[in-house]
Amino acid sequence: MNTQGTNSATLAFWRFKGFGILRIVFGLVWAIDAWFKWQPDFINNFSSYLQGTLDGQPGWVQTWINFWIKIVGVDPHIFAHLVAIGETAIAIALIVGAFSNLTYLVGVLLSIVIWTSAEGFGGPYVAGSTDIGAAIIYVLVFAGLFLANAGLYYGVDRYVTPWLRRLGFLASGSSKAEARQGAVTQRASS
To answer: 126 or 150: which carries more pLDDT confidence?
Structure first.
């Protein structure tokens, strides 16, 4: 019996479970953030959050942010509610591990929009600035969760995927992926 392979398979399985836990914790972070978005102060002052990022930005960033300010200006309350609903949906999907691949894609897109607008690309980058903004890091976390199939562990994706049939790609799990993982684990333990 190959103990080296068994130890590697056990370690790999533990890491996959760790990614499931990371997904849940990341979902709790999004839930806290979503809670803040449902507060009247955010909903009533949504446009001012965008306008506050204009100070000290280079012209091209100001142009981009002004583009979003004009779009949001159509009805700031609707856009504020859309952000709150989006963050709430992402939080719930991360916590329960449902439709994970779709969640990661939507999370990446929303994070990029937040980073490039409300966070002003993390700038302005002047002497003394020490932060690139949190939202761009969220993009990397979503990418890592996607690559790790984090929805398979401590999530409902493994149960939902077979029912989705053609739309199974929206979730992390598939019977084919589990069969491949089982074969790798079996080969490593023999």
So the answer is: 150
What are 52's two structure tokens? 């506050």
Taking residue 51's Cβ as centre, other Cβ atoms within 10 Å add up to 13
Domain that holds residue 168: 3-189
Nearest to residue 33, comparing CAs of 97, 106, 90, 99?
90
C-alpha torsion sign, points 139, 144, 165, 88 = negative
Q: How many Å apart are CA 111 and CA 141, to the nearest integer?
A: 11
User: Helix 3-37 crosses helix 76-96 at what angle (to 10 degrees)?
Assistant: 150
What is the DSSP secondary structure assignment for residue 106, as one 8-state letter? H
Counting the structural domains of the chain, the total is: 1
Output the pTM of the full model.
0.81
Which has the closest alpha carbon to 169: 100, 96, 90?
100
